[in-house]
């Protein structure tokens, strides 16, 4: 049974403080099935990796990013092994100026500092100082730019056949023309449909799928060499360059940032 991250009334109701936050560190994986709540939720990872399913997409939350989920938006959450993370829950009436759609954002030092302070509050009405800190969190979210950490799924059965095959073997380096012939459609149709249904070109989608899988494998402690081979990179250096461009750090440093957890460290 998953221990609640925060008191249910601070998630399921807009009563009480307009912003509530919590941090969590634990050894075991954490998973919640698809659900929604009246409050908007901003969630981030301090170390490890969390996957979020939302709007027929799979999003990941590496340690320098966060995911914004507007009020009443269906989503599921799963961590990959030990992790440390945080969530902020914002009352629906204060979400009007916030992004109306789910998005991944890159966290700023100011946002993280404000969230860390808010996580120590007791869940009662906010005083003047706490209100100013809570407003900083809302301002940082409102000003954030969307980052690409999601992987949209195409609806066309022929495209889905291709993406399913790639998901099973991301090292498959067949060109678009070869995939089109395999799926029974023209290269032009594949290219046009892929962009229309996912917002990405075929090459961009495959690169994104490889990145998201790389983040999962790194969080699970798989060696960099094994990951590079599994994802079809010609050499380890090419994989490390891609990872650093996407996350701002190398796989080794990402792994080194994991906390040393003890059995009694799980806490709300």
From TrEMBL:
Gene3D superfamilies: Homeodomain-like, Jelly Rolls. Pfam families: AraC_binding, HTH_18. The keyword DNA-binding applies. GO terms for molecular function: DNA-binding transcription factor activity; sequence-specific DNA binding. Residues 160-257 form the HTH araC/xylS-type domain. This is AraC family transcriptional regulator. It comes from Paraburkholderia hospita. Keywords: Activator, DNA-binding, Repressor, Transcription, Transcription regulation. SUPFAM superfamilies: Homeodomain-like (SSF46689), RmlC-like cupins (SSF51182). InterPro entries: AraC-bd, Homeodomain-like_sf, HTH_AraC, HTH_AraC-typ_CS, RmlC-like_jellyroll, RmlC_Cupin_sf, Tscrpt_reg_AraC-type_HTH. PANTHER family: HTH-TYPE TRANSCRIPTIONAL REGULATOR NIMR.
């Amino acid at each position: 049974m998953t221990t609640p991250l925060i008191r249910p009334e601070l998630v399921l109701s807009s009563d009480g403080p307009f912003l509530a936050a919590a941090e969590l560190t634990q050894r075991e994986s954490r998973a919640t099935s698809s659900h929604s709540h009246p409050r908007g939720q901003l969630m981030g990872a301090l170390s490890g990796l969390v996957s979020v399913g939302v709007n027929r997409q799979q999003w990941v939350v590496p340690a320098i990013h966060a995911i914004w989920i507007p009020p009443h938006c269906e989503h599921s959450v799963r961590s990959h092994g030990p992790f440390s993370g945080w969530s902020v829950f914002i009352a629906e009436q204060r979400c009007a100026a916030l992004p109306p759609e789910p998005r991944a954002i890159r966290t700023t030092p100011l946002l993280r500092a404000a969230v860390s302070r808010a996580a120590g509050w007791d869940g009662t009405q906010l005083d003047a100082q706490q209100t100013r800190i809570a407003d900083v969190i809302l301002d940082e979210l409102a000003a954030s730019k969307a980052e690409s950490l999601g992987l949209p799924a195409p609806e066309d059965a022929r495209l889905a056949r291709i993406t399913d095959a790639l998901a099973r073997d991301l090292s498959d380096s067949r060109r678009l023309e070869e995939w089109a012939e395999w799926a029974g459609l023209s290269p032009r149709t594949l290219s046009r449909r892929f962009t229309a249904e996912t917002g990405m070109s075929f090459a961009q989608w495959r690169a994104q799928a490889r990145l998201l899988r790389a983040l999962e494998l790194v969080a699970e402690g798989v060696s960099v060499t094994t990951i590079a081979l599994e994802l079809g990179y010609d050499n380890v250096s090419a994989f490390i360059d891609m990872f650093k461009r996407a996350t701002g750090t190398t796989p080794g440093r990402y792994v080194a940032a994991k906390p040393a957890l003890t059995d009694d460290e799980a806490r709300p």
